[in-house]
């Protein structure tokens, strides 16, 4: 009989459901215990990170979008999951409650399983692929035992264990979010996975100013940088960061939802590599990275469309465009006049987002980006009982305002059509 092979996502699903309940109940200890129990049950550490915690985060986004979760619940869920990841990285049984200043952990929480495994102590049956080649110059043997189990994190090193100073050099990577990008958790998951795969990781978190990122790369002599972006509005900033990293001679791996389906914007903006998720990212890094001498000029400028100045002018005029759209909207959509102060603020925020996404679409010359944003906004508005008609009016006003910008006007019309024919816009 052939043994049944179960996909990691399938094995993870019940754990993700359990974590979801704990997170929704705001029960952080149970959330952490659930993740530890999943490890004890034999789920590998990457699976817990990506298919349990990551899956819960994605569900948070889906339920927020359909208005089943408030912003506060979404924040609370993310905060719990961040702490669950941190708890998994600590030595077994050590919790903030048991950690004494300057001392070793004492007892476990009564009635709670101490948890055999933590992320940085993957179960021995877990086998990761080869260690990444630092510069893509062929395979370096795995520096640590346990079939790819990483070296303990410096803070988590138990007495007597090998310390970073007596371990062979590991390739070093900086994981950072593009400036202005608040979505740090996807990058954190990537950082944890790369640590598990044997990389020495510097995780810089959310919105890292490019100048400081470059400074850090020089300081740490990083072998590579992983740049994360979740919102397409950060693409122009991502481009500046990618260019600066490459100019500093550090190869760039780009990822996150901002880079579009199939990572189509990553290549355009000069990233050396792109990956859809953390597992693929680790695998791509293992295949190797290009190495160029510092100051190697970038390839042909692929952003010739920027010569029409539409991106520059629209993004510079964004505040005026937002005001003009709001004014025009109040005459086309009289319901706006009865809005409360808070509703007005939401509308102003939404219009500002529309203009920001239009600018991003112009930057990468992708009308599909703006159309997809239009459909997403229609769904979010409809779930909150805001008539999608208001979005169509806003796009009409914006279209009139953008009459001197043919590329922008064409994108606005395409988005209008995408919204009008979307399930939420049908019949408008
Ligand atoms: C939590 C959250 C937040 C938190 C972030 C806190 C934090 N510490 O991360 C806060 C509250 C700050 C936030 C703010 C906003 N958010 Co938000 N947020 C989310 C949410 C629910 C979860 C994010 C997450 O953790 N995802 C889990 C991981 C697993 O996601 P992932 O992308 O699949 O990650 C994998 C890959 O992308 C890849 N990857 C990621 N980075 C990298 C990097 C490299 C180099 C590589 C190779 C791979 C890689 O590997 C990861 C692991 O496999 C998402 C929903 C979602 N689906 O992600 C919305 C979501 C991303 N947010 C959204 C929005 C709109 C916003 C706001 C604009 C809301 C607002 N009006 O203010 C702001 C923008 C803030 C900003 N300027 O960045 C939208 C974006 C929609 C769109 N059209 O683009 C989403 C999709 C919600 C939704 N359902 O609509 N948000």
Description:
It is a single chain. The protein is 51% helix and 5% strand. It contains 16 helices and five strands. The longest helix is centred in the C-terminal third of the chain and has 24 residues. The protein folds into three domains: 89 residues, Orthogonal Bundle (Methyltransferase, Methionine Synthase (B12-binding Domains), Chain A, domain 1); 138 residues, Rossmann fold (3-Layer(aba) Sandwich), CATH 3.40.50.280; 114 residues, Phycocyanins (Globin-like), CATH 1.10.490. It is mainly α and 428 residues long. About 16% of the residues have low confidence. It has a five-stranded parallel sheet with strand order 2-1-3-4-5, with helices on both faces. It is globular, with a radius of gyration of 24 Å. The site of cobalamin has 39 residues, from α3, α4, α6, β3 and β4.
Bound molecules: cobalamin
Average pLDDT reading? 83
Q: Please tell me how large the radius of gyration is.
A: 24 Å
So what's the overall shape? globular
SSE order: HHHHHEHEHEHEHEHHHHHHH
> What fold name stands as the CATH topology of the largest domain?
Rossmann fold
How large is the share of residues in beta strands?
A: 5-15%
If strands are numbered along the chain, what order do they take across the biggest sheet? 2-1-3-4-5
Work out the helicity level. 40-55%
Tally of helical runs: 16
Major beta sheet summary: 5 strands, parallel
Low-confidence stretches: 96-117, 121-166
Specify the structural class.
mainly alpha
In terms of quaternary structure, the protein is single chain
Q: How far is the N terminus from the C terminus?
A: 57 Å
Whole-number total of structural domains = 3
Kindly provide the name of the CATH class of the largest domain.
Alpha Beta
Examine the secondary-structure arrangement and name the CATH architecture of the largest domain.
3-Layer(aba) Sandwich
């Amino acid at each position: 009989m052939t043994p049944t092979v179960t996909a990691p996502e399938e094995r993870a699903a019940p754990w993700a459901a359990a974590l979801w309940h704990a997170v929704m109940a705001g029960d952080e200890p149970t959330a952490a215990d659930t993740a530890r129990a999943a490890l004890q049950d034999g789920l590998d550490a990457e699976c817990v990170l990506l298919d349990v915690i990551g899956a819960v985060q994605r569900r948070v986004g889906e339920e927020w979008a359909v208005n089943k979760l408030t912003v506060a619940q979404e924040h609370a869920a993310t905060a719990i999951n961040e702490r669950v990841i941190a708890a998994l990285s600590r030595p077994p049984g050590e919790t903030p409650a048991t950690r004494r200043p300057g001392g070793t952990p004492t007892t476990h929480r009564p009635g709670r399983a101490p948890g055999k495994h933590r992320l940085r102590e993957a179960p021995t049956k877990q086998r990761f692929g080869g260690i990444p080649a630092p510069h893509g110059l062929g395979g370096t043997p795995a520096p640590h035992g346990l079939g790819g189990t990483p070296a303990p994190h410096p803070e988590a090193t138990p007495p007597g264990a090998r310390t970073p100073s007596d371990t062979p050099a590991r390739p070093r990577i900086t994981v950072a979010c593009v400036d202005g990008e608040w979505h740090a958790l996807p990058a954190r998951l990537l950082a944890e996975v790369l640590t598990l795969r044997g990389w020495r990781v510097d995780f810089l978190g959310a919105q890292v100013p490019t100048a400081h990122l470059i400074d850090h790369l020089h300081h740490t002599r990083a072998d590579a940088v992983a740049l994360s972006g979740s919102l397409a509005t950060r693409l122009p900033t991502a481009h500046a960061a990618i260019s600066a990293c490459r100019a500093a001679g550090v190869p760039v791996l780009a990822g996150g939802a901002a880079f579009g389906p199939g990572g189509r914007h990553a290549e355009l903006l000069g990233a050396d590599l792109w990956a859809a998720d953390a597992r693929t990212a680790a695998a791509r890094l293992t295949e190797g990275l290009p190495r160029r001498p510092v100051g190697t000029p970038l390839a042909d400028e692929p952003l010739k469309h920027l010569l029409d100045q539409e991106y520059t002018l629209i993004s510079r005029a964004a505040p005026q465009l937002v005001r003009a759209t709001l004014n025009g909207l109040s005459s086309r959509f009289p319901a706006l006049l009865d809005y409360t102060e808070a509703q007005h603020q939401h509308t102003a925020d939404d219009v500002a987002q529309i203009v920001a996404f239009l600018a991003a679409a112009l930057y990468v010359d992708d009308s599909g980006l703006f159309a997809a944003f239009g459909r997403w906004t229609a769904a979010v508005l409809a779930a909150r009982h805001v008539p999608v008609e208001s979005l169509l009016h806003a796009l009409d006003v914006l279209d009139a305002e953008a009459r001197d910008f043919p590329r922008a006007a064409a994108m606005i019309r395409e988005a209008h059509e995408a919204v009008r024919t979307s399930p939420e816009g049908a019949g408008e």
